[in-house]
């Protein structure tokens, strides 16, 4: 079953609409979707290493645009829902202090979340919620997502064939490692 799923993913990665699917996944992952675009990005680059830069560009642009949606969710829904609740609880003052502290390190928070496996959507929504300056958010998102996706693209373009051979020979081990990393990321997010 795992082999057929791998073969199906590789076939989808070579499909003529794969870039559009990647764009959609990268967009919604940056605001609400729990699965990172890497699940498509990596097989797409392995399947077509000559398109690595285009694939990374599509993922970057779509992720930044999706990040703007996440920012909007945090910005617009905090005022209408979150703030009245906090005021009723007498916590509005502590929120202002949190917002100031977050925005003091906001560049680094966005950069770190954008480059690492940490869910980017958490930071995009928090950036809107704390009213981080939009320019800072956009520039940092572009830098972070470009770094992440273009580094992956460069590594896979250069070492793609040996990586593909390794994955195909040790598919079970690679799958277990991927699931462990994914679960570890969710556990880190929950307890940090």
Automatic annotation (TrEMBL):
The chain crosses the membrane at residues 20-41, 53-78, 134-159, 171-189. The keyword ATP-binding does not apply. Keywords: Membrane, Transmembrane, Transmembrane helix. Residues 35-155 form the VTT domain. GO terms for cellular component: plasma membrane. PANTHER family: ALKALINE PHOSPHATASE LIKE PROTEIN, DEDA FAMILY PROTEIN. This is SNARE associated Golgi protein. It comes from Pelagimonas varians.
